[in-house]
Fold this protein.
Amino acid sequence: MSEYLVKEEESGQRLDVYLAKTADLSRSAVQKNIKEGGITVNGREQKANYKVETGDLVRLILPAARPLDVLAEEIPLEILYEDDDLLVVNKPKGMVVHPAPGHSSGTLVNALLYHCGDSLSGINGVLRPGIVHRIDRDTTGSLLVCKNDNAHQKIAQQIKEHSIHRLYRGIVLGNVTKEQGIVDAPIGRHPIERKKMAINEKNGKHAVTHYRVLKRFGDLTYMEFQLETGRTHQIRVHMASIGHPLLGDEVYGPKKCRFRLQGQTLHAYLIGFCHPSTNTYMEITAPLPDYFTRLLEVLEHA
């Protein structure tokens, strides 16, 4: 059971919206739990559209975990760090993080179930054990996985507070003239192409990306990105919005690429966080994948 006290700046939000943000759950999961009586406000059940008020005590009781119907698979993992509370893996290109329609096997979750067994947090449901954040299928690099609910809640709180330090490396199209800058633009669903994200001033969520140039290669620029927020496709959408889409990104950039690439050239290089048990700050770096280093070598000698 978890309890949350509504703050003044949170007053007026719908109950399902408030809990989705505060408890790091999907809105549909919150609505389902409300219907099943697992959520109360000041000791009373309320509907999903109830507007929370300052001082409301929201109590959340998660349903007992159902048996996981995802198979454990012996898939090699590059583990950058591991202890009793969490692990950090270097996710390869092409690997989906958790099962979804069309991707029921070969995911990171399938691999984690084989490696960790029952030692994964259950807060995000039976299809996403241990998963506290995600990176795209064709983005490589560091991904933090929680082994128990206590670790999950504390890491999720750091993500909510934007205190997780995340650095990405990527190659973008064009010569980025400014040495460093900030893209501050809300991101939401594309109004027409629902599988895409877009700058959405009306319905988007606050999103901020800091960037700096590492090296220029004529019509390509090697860059580092720091996430202040963590929206879906954030770096890809933000860079495309200023005219510099990620190299190889066929969703937000050109369909044709002069290099043989599998999706965007983007790597989650570093993740920094406070350990959920020791409260010690840690930074874990993930080495660039081979395709990325080879590409940089080609560009150096071009």
Summary: The chain has six helices and 15 strands.
